[in-house]
Amino acid sequence: QVQLVESGGDLVQAGGSLRLSCAASGSIFSINVMGWHRQAPGKQRELVATVTSGGSTKYADSVKGRFTISRDNAKKTVYLQMNSLKPEDTAVYYCNADLTGYDGSYVNHRDYWGQGTQVTVSS
């Protein structure tokens, strides 16, 4: 069974840092884009950052210069280093991956999501 599992969410004071991790497991042949999204209470889920298999990255304007996305292709893991955290960064953070593999049947460029990890930034 293909799945994504996030970790690293916590309660932190404003100005602090956290590092989120998301590991993909199962019968995976390749992973294209991996990314992080977040959803704050009462708000829609929004894109935070993405990284391609070649290492190209994109960021939401609200996190540029503070967050860094990276990945370890051998470990099938994507990371989100979050620095200078603000109370408005408080949200559930979800990782996703566009992957090809076998999940009961062959899947080609299917989008998978993790269960989410809570990040709370206190002022």
Task: Sketch the topology as an H/E string, one letter per element.
Answer: EEEEEEEEEEE
How would you characterize the largest beta sheet? 7 strands, mixed
The proportion of residues forming helix, as a percent range, comes to under 10%
Mean pLDDT: 97
Overall radius of gyration? 14 Å
Give the strand tally: 11
User: Separation of termini?
Assistant: 40 Å
The geometry reads as: elongated
Low-confidence stretches: none
Helix/strand structural class: mainly beta
Strand content is over 45%
Number of helices: 0
What does this structure look like?
- The chain has 123 residues and is mostly beta strands.
- The protein has no helices and 11 strands.
- It has strands at residues 3-7, 11-13, 18-25, 27-39, 46-51, 57-59, 67-72, 77-82, 91-102, 106-113, 117-122.
- The chain starts with a strand and ends with a strand.
Q: What is the secondary structure topology, with strand pairs?
A:
Elements: E1 3-7, E2 11-13, E3 18-25, E4 27-39, E5 46-51, E6 57-59, E7 67-72, E8 77-82, E9 91-102, E10 106-113, E11 117-122
Parallel strand pairs: 2-11
Antiparallel strand pairs: 1-3, 3-8, 4-5, 4-9, 5-6, 7-8, 9-10, 9-11
